[in-house]
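Sample intake sheet
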Amino acid sequence: MQRLALLPIALGRSPPDPDEIYEAMKDKLHQPYRKSLIPGLTEVFESLHPKTHIGLLGVCLSGAGPTILALATDHFELVAESIISSLSKFEAGGIPITCTWKLLDIAENGATVTGSFGSS
C-alpha cells in the first residue's frame, strides 16, 4: 500500500523522476496473481525500464487486464513496439498473441458528463 501513496507524489513532480514512478507502478498486491493469466507479462515487466527505454516512466497491468499501461514522456512508439515484440513470442490457448497500441491524451478535466437531463 505504500506504493499507492508514492505514485501521486511521483507523478506530481516536475520534472518527473522515471525511477521513482517506475517503482511506484510496481503493484505488489494484484499483479503477482494476475501475471500468470497473461502469457508474456512477466517478460514485459522484466524487459522494460526507464534506463533502457528513453521516455518510459513506468509500466503496469491496467485494471484486471489484459490492458498494459505504459506511462511515457517520449519515444511512445518504441516503448509500445518493445511491449508488442515481447508479447508476440507467446501464445494463449495455442493462438499467437497479437496486440495494438494507442497513444492517449491526459484527461486534464477529469470525468465529464455530456448530454441533456431533465423531464421531457
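Comment: Helices lie at 2-12, 18-24, 31-34, 41-47, 76-87. The chain has a mean pLDDT of 86.
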